[in-house]
Amino acid sequence: xxxIMAPTSRxxxxxxxxxxxxxVGLLCVHSAICQIDAMLSASDPTRPMPGWxxxxxxxxxxxxxxxxxxxxxxxxxxxxxxxxxxxxxxVFGWQALLEGPSNYTGELDLLVEQCQIxxxxxxxxxxxxxxxxxxxxxxxxxLRTIMRDPAYEDFFLRDASGFIPATTYCKQMGQxxxxxxxxxxxWNWFNASAVDFYINRLILPQVQxxxxxxxxFDGSDGFLRGTWKSATNVAPGTTSExxxxxxxxxxxxxxxxxxxxxxxxxxxxxxxxSTPDQHAYIATSMASTPYARFYEDFQPTIxxxxxxxxxxxxxxxxxxxxxxxxxxxxxxxxxxxTTSIATFLLLQSNFSYFMASTxxxxxxxxxxxxxxxxxxxPLGPAAQPYPGVYVRNFSRCDVTVDCSSGGDIxxxxxxxxxxxxxxxxxxxxxFDCSCQGFADYYGTEAGxxxxxxxxxxxDWWRARACAASSTRGCCNGPAxxxxxxxxxxxxxxxPCRGSIAAKSSGELAGQR
Length: 512
Hints:
Blueprint: E1 66-69, H1 78-84, E2 89-92, H2 107-121, E3 126-132, E4 135-136, H3 141-144, E5 158-159, E6 162-163, H4 168-172, E7 185-186, H5 192-207, E8 214-218, H6 240-260, E9 264-269, H7 276-285, E10 291-295, H8 302-312, E11 325-330, H9 338-347, E12 352-357, E13 383-386, E14 389-393, E15 398-402, E16 408-412, H10 435-442, H11 455-463, E17 498-501
Parallel strand pairs: 1-2, 2-3, 3-8, 8-9, 9-10, 10-11, 11-12, 16-17
Antiparallel strand pairs: 4-7, 5-6, 13-14, 14-15, 15-16
């Protein structure tokens, strides 16, 4: 891909307060890219946005690096509190303090207290409290008092055997599945009194407190999974459309209640929980609602890319303004997350956050070196110059997400995407200006992988609709043996993968 900014002689730390995530339109550096519609600002006034400072980047070069953990036995110690200052956003999960000071009672008040401690030490860090948005938790004092009171029994979904149980919290804490101290019911969102109680007695007293920034509502779209269908206290003839409308009405009231107290609601949703039609209804109905969407189980795949781009960078013709989002990726270990960071850079807008961990306790979180490089300022929104191929230009790198054939992701520092020659010096005489010469030189296999071809060379290939394959094998061409060659992509199956190629040694310090 052609360069879009003059080279710099040294690594430059991006000034977070100047991040232009709200740019409207795109710098036209490629004829196909210029065809994309102008994008709306992520600060569109029709949706109230969070009041906290998104431009605060305490460490690294990626805006919006977040943490979501818990210490089940007590408050965070001094070293852990200091570490949390590295993150732009800190969320404390439901496990926090559960087996220590709270002993499965009164946990919510302690969660707020823990958030207030972090906020006192790190005033510019966004700090978020956890409240369940689907299940009735007995370790919240105000809920424990009504869970077995017959006067409130229709607040919760019931079947012929009694209250429909939610055992996930007991199981995750290693307790017997039906242990009363952690066994939950499900809220009945068809019951108006239950909704009033949830908002006025559970949420409002907490968000009226000071020194934290918002509330994360877990399981928010879980009502669409249909647990209510087996409930005997739901009116006969109730439809999935009725359930969708009831859930959305709750979310709108909750979000507006939280926002009225100077805080922001984050609703956790799974991509698989709603159909495209249901999601369209949610987006349209809540177009002016102040809330963020949390994507659990995020992966750098084309389905997530398409869905999130429609939310963070909607087209100018869209009736739905941009939405703040948080994505969480579950990791198997200390794996390279270059692919994920590349995808996040592509998708990012104002109030976009990224987090990755092996679990939900403090021990499961680490600071990844992929957070450290200075990727530069975004020069416009993402574009799709070819089917399955997405690009976005930054002042210090070009992000290319290629899911068209097996899928690869590359972040290549502009303008010298080929570190040996530079964009201006590059020309096709390196391989006799033929498709077969290209394939042999860069170790390309048509339809599978570009080998070690840099982005501007790939543009040459695509413009000529080449379909040749290397006679030497993938990534086995002369260019791939040169020092500083572009990252190599070979055939594979599964989700998109990625790599980062530095313009020169040391430019992206910390990258592995």
